[in-house]
Amino acid sequence: MPFPPQTKYIIGNEACERFSFYGMRSILTLYMLSVLAMSDSAVVTVGHLFNAGIYILPLVGAWLADRFFGRYRMILYVSLFYCVGHGILATTDMVDSVEVRRWILFAGLFVIALGAGGIKPCVSAFVGDQAEGSDRKTMTRLYAAFYWSINLGSFFSFLIVPWVRQNYGYSWAFSIPGIFMGIATFIFWRGRRFYRHREPSDPLFSLPSSPAC
Questions:
Q1: For residue 151, what are the domain limits?
Q2: CA–CA dist 4, 10 (Å, integer)
Q3: What is the pLDDT of residues 147-188, one digit of tens each?
Q4: What share of residues in the chain are helix, strand, coil (percent, to 5)?
């Protein structure tokens, strides 16, 4: 049995989103050490706080999706936050003050954590919503393709983004992940007329089978 056709949008979205996330992560520690002149302990602290946000905020994102927004709208809306966060990071190397750069970086990481926290619990479940009623073999193949997209996006991000940093500087290196997150959001939005939706328990919006946004 072939995959539900709408799942290609989610798989493409996931590949680009993982590229954006791991691409940013691939240069983050070096940027804090070499450009922001942060101590090793400060870099470790920032990294731990960021990771904590990435893994705690999905609890909030899942609750909001299941209770109020539904998975489609939750993924779409927080993807926009995600893009803004990358945009903030791309401006860190455009100011002279190291102190200001640090605060810009912290703001960007906070917004990215909000975006990743909203997407993380919803996207894999949204894949399952599209394949509801499929046989076990089809479901297994679908999730295999989904997780391969994660690995491919991550792999190429570690090749491309550090190369961009080395040749074009940090502004472009932080911009490339943001561009890919914008592409991820666009790909996901393109599938809007084909997705199957599961209604939240207390919806703030109606979720027709072909949403307008």
A1: 7-190
A2: 11
A3: 999 999 999 999 999 999 999 999 999 999 999 999 999 999
A4: 80, 0, 20
Say which CATH number the domain at 168 has.
1.20.1250.20
E strand or H helix at 95: none
CB under 8 Å to 209, separation ≥6 — which residues? 196, 197
| pTM, rounded to two decimals | 0.90
How many Å is the maximal CA-CA distance in the chain?
58
Number of folded domains that form the chain: 1
Q: Specify if 44 maps to a domain.
A: yes
Helix (H, G, I), strand (E, B) or coil at 34: helix
Q: Are 202 and 35 in contact (CB under 8 A)?
A: no
What is the three-class DSSP state of 24?
helix
Domain-located, residue 119: yes
